[in-house]
Write a structure and sequence with these properties.
The complex is a heterodimer of chains A (250) and B (452). With 250 residues, chain A is α/β, with parallel strands linked by helices. Chain A has helices at 19-30, 49-53, 71-82, 98-103, 105-133, 154-173, 206-218, 230-237, 242-247, and strands spanning 10-14, 35-40, 57-62, 87-90, 136-141, 179-186, 223-226. With 452 residues, chain B is an alpha+beta fold. The chains are: A alpha/beta (250), B alpha+beta (452). Chain A binds chain B through residues 1-7, 9, 31-32, 84, 132-135, 176-179, 219-220, and chain B through 3-4, 6, 11, 13-18, 39, 51-52, 56-59, 319-321, 323, 382-383, 387-388, 391, 411-412, 414, 444, 447-448.
Chain lengths: 250, 452
């Protein structure tokens, strides 16, 4: 249950090894969360020591983003472990390499399944639970890559565009239910997942994304950008004429 | 089933959704209680508890404000019986007409009798008259095990009676109650006012003044810095006798004047109440009070419920809402009061309505808040940066001093802290388990603080 000052008790992280996801969870634990469920393929055997040091209990849960048929059961298992889900962080995804995707359409389709369809099945399962319990927040890690899809990473970007739209629609469907969705649009974040990509302007750290999420959850935001400057920047980006957009190197 | 409705407390923070039903009779309430789903059920009154005490996420909320009917006064026994959904305002109207008054009046008359019992509310006379529970003669409780129970302080079932007084609605649905009432000659208070220059003189004057008046309360300025910190306006009063009134009022001494009601605007910008606006208000309020005034006749409504003159004043805190922090520490722990006052001042926390009271004898209610000592209540904007940490720090000081926070005001304390402040919780739970073995009665507060 979220209290009047924004602290929560339980957090479920879908994508239990995601660096951004873990940074968000750490932030919530620092602000008072006491029960954490890390859901990832094979479970998370060694959770970050900081959770324990901050008096939070960590649980591990098997979660396969590609196995949509198991997602409702995954959410039920998390509820079994900690009770009401106060915050669910939906952070799993793969970035991959655009050139490799273009050479191997099957791998591109699999990445799209993780980055989009996996979120649809698990997002709807989470939403059903939040609606039933009458409170709770789903934090969806979208990306500026989905705000306007670029030539340089359109397999990843298009899946994020789909996810972003899905999350907005889900947010509207939950209006008045006591549950909410927070869409997070980070720019380039230096993590293991993005190591093979050159940094873009206005990079953010996982901790900065976590700070933005915390701020968004405390208020009534539906969308947060990290860093904040990306919001006006991408408002402008959407207006760039197509021939020019196409020629952007990255 | 109806569409879920978003509910919050008076602080307008942390909304959750529940199915709201409105029983009009005790029989309907009993049926609704029996039909509750797996997410639980709870009675709600006029929604004046500040935090999450009267909401149950995903469950069923019995809005009991239509559980009303004419109050019945027994002048021989000097007691009044009323359905639990009756507001204290309505009860006061009825009582004054017959020359009586409530034995205990909280800071607003817009609360139901049932809610007032569930929070075991106190008033400005706690140091003399204890809390509302001390004046209850009996109450009727609907319980999930299907019983309609009539309970009293000396029996039947005094354990369940006291578990219900201050029990935050978690032992059942109160449908009716009988309480002793106070005969009065007039609808006026005879008020003495003193302005104090700092916290020490405020505490000193309050301690010395204790037994001389039935009612005593001090508004303190916790935004003032340095030597002026804790300067206050102490008002003490007794019920005015007919002879105390000026001639025009003497002709109709029991005429109940609630005065005009202003409405707060429907929306206020975030941050409207900040340290500068509130600081200016506090200075003006302190400056406007007389240095020393004796025996002014004031209407009871004006004296007890000044805030009721502005309906929806909680909206002034903007979209992020407000938090009220109220605690009590034993006499001799003035250092804790000072630490909290200094902490708020240092943080520049715009505490608009800081109210200092001395409390007297408690009731036996295991979850009832009042304890002998100093009680301080402070309203703060929920959006204030760093507030969570500041209040967590205060909690630890209050706990170390042997004090506690008030559940009807709380919206953010931690379960471990509250369990340490209320050591009688295990016994209360055992009593509760007799009438609610399946844990049907629940609230967001109960979930957050793991009371059930």
């Amino acid at each position: 249950m979220r209290d009047s000052l924004g602290s929560v008790r339980t957090v479920l992280l879908l994508g239990g090894r995601s660096e951004i996801g873990l940074a968000v969870v750490e932030r919530l634990v620092r602000e008072g969360a006491r029960e954490v469920v890390l859901a990832a393929r094979g479970g998370v055997a060694e959770p970050p020591g900081v959770f324990g040091a901050l008096d939070a209990t960590t649980h591990s849960l098997e979660f396969d983003a590609e196995a949509s048929g198991t997602h409702a059961a995954t959410v039920a298992a998390a509820v079994e472990l900690v009770g009401d889900l106060d915050v669910v962080v939906d952070a799993f995804g793969v970035l991959g390499d655009q050139a490799a995707y273009e050479a191997d359409p099957l791998s591109a389709a699999r990445a799209a399944a993780v980055n989009y369809t996996g979120h649809v099945s698990v997002g709807l399962s989470v939403a059903a639970r939040l609606r039933e319990q009458g409170h709770g927040a789903l934090v969806v890690l979208s990306s500026v890559a989905g705000v306007r899809v670029r030539r340089a990473n359109f397999v990843y970007g298009s899946a994020k565009a789909g996810l972003d739209g899905f999350a907005q629609g889900l947010a509207d469907s939950l209006h008045g239910s006591g549950a909410r969705v927070l869409v997070v649009r980070p720019g380039y974040v230096a993590t293991r997942m993005s190591r093979h990509v050159d940094p873009a302007p206005f990079p953010a750290t996982p901790a900065q994304v976590a700070e933005a999420v915390s701020r968004g959850l405390r208020g009534n935001a539906t969308t947060v950008w990290a860093p904040r400057v990306l919001r006006p920047l991408f408002t402008g980006m959407r207006l760039v004429p197509r021939p020019l957009w196409r020629r952007l190197g990255r | 089933m109806s569409r879920p409705t978003l509910l919050t407390g008076w602080g307008r923070t942390a909304p959750t959704a529940a199915h709201v039903v409105r029983p009009r009779t005790a029989e309907q309430a009993a049926r609704m209680l029996a039909e509750a789903g797996p997410r639980g059920v709870l009675a709600r009154g006029l929604g004046r508890s500040y935090g999450d005490a009267a909401q149950v996420a995903g469950g069923t909320v019995l809005d009991c404000t239509e559980l009303t009917g004419p109050p019945r006064l027994d002048p021989v026994r000097e007691e009044l019986t009323a359905p639990a959904g009756t507001s204290l305002g309505r009860i006061v109207e009825h009582l004054l007409r017959h020359g009586y008054f409530l034995p205990v009046t909280p800071g607003t008359r817009h609360v139901t009798l049932g809610g007032a019992i569930a929070a075991d509310v106190h008033g400005k006379n706690h140091h003399v008259d204890s809390s509302l529970g001390a004046h209850l003669r009996s109450l009727t409780l609907l319980t999930p095990t299907g019983g309609v129970l009539r309970l009293g302080p000396e029996g039947p079932d005094p354990d369940l009676f006291w578990a219900t007084v201050g029990g935050m609605g978690l032992t059942g649905v109160i449908t009716e109650a009988t309480l002793g009432v106070l005969p009065v000659e007039t609808a006026y208070a005879r008020v003495d006012t003193d302005r104090t220059p700092d916290l020490d003189s405020t505490l000193d004057l309050m301690a010395r003044a204790d037994p001389t008046h039935r009612y005593a309360v001090c508004w303190v300025d916790l935004l003032a810095r340095g030597a002026s910190l804790g300067r206050g306006v102490l008002t003490r009063a007794d019920h005015a006798l007919r002879a105390d009134l000026p001639a025009p009022q003497r002709r109709d001494p029991l005429r109940h004047r609630t005065g005009p009601t202003l409405a707060a605007p429907p929306w206020a910008p975030p941050g409207l109440l900040n340290r500068w606006t509130v600081g200016a208000f506090n200075s003006a309020h302190h400056g406007a009070a007389p240095l020393r005034e004796r025996g002014r006749a004031q209407s009871l409504a004006g004296f007890f419920h000044p805030l009721d003159a502005v309906s929806g004043w909680n909206r002034m805190y903007g979209p992020s809402g407000l938090v009220q922090y109220q605690f009590v520490v034993p006499f001799g722990e003035e250092g804790t009061l000072r630490a909290v006052a200094e902490g708020l001042s240092r943080a520049g926390a715009p505490s608009f309505l800081a109210v200092l009271k001395r409390m007297g004898a408690p009731t036996p209610g295991p979850l009832s808040f009042p304890r002998p000592g100093w009680s301080l209540a402070v309203d703060l904007p929920a959006g204030l940066p760093g507030l969570a940490r500041l209040l967590d720090g205060f909690d630890q000081r209050v706990l170390a001093a042997g004090g506690r926070v008030y559940l009807a005001k709380d919206s953010r304390a931690g379960p471990e802290t509250v369990h340490a402040m209320y050591p009688a919780i295990p016994g209360w739970r055992a009593t509760r388990a007799r009438v609610d073995p399946d844990g049907v009665l629940v609230s967001d507060l109960a979930r957050r603080l793991r009371l059930v």
